[in-house]
Amino acid sequence: MSTPPVASPAPRPREAGFRALDAGWRQWIAENRLRRCTPESMLATMVQAGLDPAECEPAIRAMDSDPVFLAARQFQQLQDKLASVMANQQRLLELDPLYGHVEKRSQVSPGEFLDKYIVGSRPVVLTDVARDWPAMGRWSPQDLRERFGHLDVQVQAERSADPNYERNKLDHQRHTRLADFVDRVLAGGATNDYYLTANNELLSQPGFAPLLDDIGSLPVFCDRSELARRASFWFGPAGTVTPLHHDTLMLCHTQIVGRKRWRFISPLQTPLLYNHFEVYSPVDLDRPDLARYPLFAQAKVLEVVVEPGETVFLPLGWWHQVTSLDVSLSFSYSNIAVPNEYRFDNPRITNW
């Protein structure tokens, strides 16, 4: 006679009011163990969130022997090795006593520029690029109104209420007459609420083609024939902030009217910047939250104020946050005459 199967123990009834330890919470356990959070701190967080400690404690303990989690641990070792290589290379760069200084240069030879700034991956401010640009004597908010005020433009608006206004830039697109936007900028004072940025693609409109006629000589490392296709226009009040991010190509950014403060962080320090989504960091350089982003305390920030007539060269992958100190008109262009299209495998994590 066969032995009857033994029944499994009945699950303990869930106490009223406890939240379910569902798949989302189990993923949370795995993520936080990968972040090397202690089981004790995790249990406290889960209990505070309304979960049953009698379920949470064994679930946390079991994670360290879960085969899927162990596979993730091995991939984490590979990621940690890459992060350590980057950190060591950054330490070597910082041995240079001038590492923290963003140079302002003129008459840089093509060979030196290629070696030191493009291949050497260093930001620099060029002081002589715009010396013959008609834009320097012509562009102003009033000039924009007189020549182009009748044209419709797209701008970014209602940014102040959204902490992720740059990530959500498509939600902030608004259309207006340029004359009305000029009046708003001049009357509104310092604000980050509205801005006409590169993403608004003003120069793609035929009516604004005369602006390109106001651009004189370009740096010798730029391809003039590509200017119209790879140029952007910026206009806004003092107080606009382009939050911390990196571009996927190299570019030049010439300041025509007003000043901007540029702050840079080396791409080798990306692991310190909590880059969980596309090309953005949640760290605000004006108000860094070190309780939430403690690794940022190790980052080395370079800073320079760019004056009218000066041109920033932004090397590949450098993180930057830009603040307008005055009403500002700027012109950027990415027609660098070296390969300037690069692939970045960007994360798209939205729940961290």
Give a written overview of the molecule:
Pfam families: Cupin_8 (PF13621). Residues 207-352 form the JmjC domain. InterPro entries: Cupin_8, JmjC_dom. With 352 residues, the protein is α+β, with helices and mostly antiparallel strands. It has two domains: 19-95, no CATH class; 101-333, Cupin (Jelly Rolls), CATH 2.60.120. It has helices spanning 23-34, 39-48, 53-63, 67-93, 110-119, 134-138, 141-148, 178-188, 210-213, and strands at 104-105, 124-126, 152-156, 173-177, 231-236, 241-246, 251-257, 260-265, 302-306, 311-314, 319-324, 328-333. Strands 1-2-10-7-12-5 form a six-stranded mixed sheet, with no helix packed on it. A four-stranded antiparallel sheet has the order 6-11-8-9, with no helix packed on it. The chain has a two-stranded antiparallel ribbon with strand order 3-4. Strand 1, helix 5 (110-119) and strand 2 (124-126) form a beta-alpha-beta unit. Helix 2 (39-48) runs antiparallel to helix 3 (53-63) and helix 7 (141-148) packs antiparallel against helix 8. It is globular, with a radius of gyration of 26 Å. It starts with 22 loop residues before the first helix and ends in a 19-residue tail after the last strand.
Say how many strands there are.
12
Domains counted in the coordinates: how many?
A: 2
Shape: globular
Instruction: Walk across the major sheet and give the strand order.
Output: 1-2-10-7-12-5
| Radius of gyration based on Cα positions | 26 Å
Overall average pLDDT: 95
β-sheet strand percentage: 15-25%
Class per helix and strand makeup: alpha+beta
Using the coordinates shown, work out and report the CATH topology of the largest domain: Jelly Rolls
End-to-end separation in angstroms reads: 57 Å
Which regions have little confidence, pLDDT < 50, spanning 5+ residues?
1-11
Element-by-element helix/strand order: HHHHEHEHHEEHHEEEEEEEE
Level-2 CATH architecture of the largest domain: Sandwich
Count the DSSP helices: 9
What is the CATH C level class of the largest domain, in words?
Mainly Beta
How is the biggest beta sheet arranged? 6 strands, mixed
Q: How helical, in percent, are the residues?
A: 25-40%
Q: Report the CATH superfamily of the largest domain.
A: Cupin
Protein name: Cupin-like domain-containing protein
Organism: Hydrogenophaga borbori
Pfam family, one: Cupin_8
Domain JmjC: 207-352
